[in-house]
Structure prediction request, 126 residues.
Amino acid sequence: MPSLAYEKEAGCLVAGIDEAGRGPIAGPVVAAAVILPVRGIPRGIDDSKAMTAAEREKVMAKIERSSIVGVGVASVHEIDQINILQASLLAMRRAVMSLPVTPRAILVDGNKLPHDLPCPARAIID
Prediction:
């Protein structure tokens, strides 16, 4: 379970964003922006690489029921045009912009931040 130390420090509506698809040879890159509930954070959240497929599916269903989720995609064509890193950052920005509410702060899994976010953001490694 995440510590939520950064969220507590921010003291406001915080979205976490991460991407999937930077490693595969083909296909789009997809990012999600998630705002977890202040109370009742779904149990079982962990690094997806440390979870089985069944555990990921179960936790994903809990997150979708209890949290605010936005998804962004950068296409294969966009990856070819701007490179995989920039496409990942574009997908992250699109995920944030697809949220039905605007967060007051954003935490990004990684060491780079997307441009033109609607609020302050912080890159988090690990």
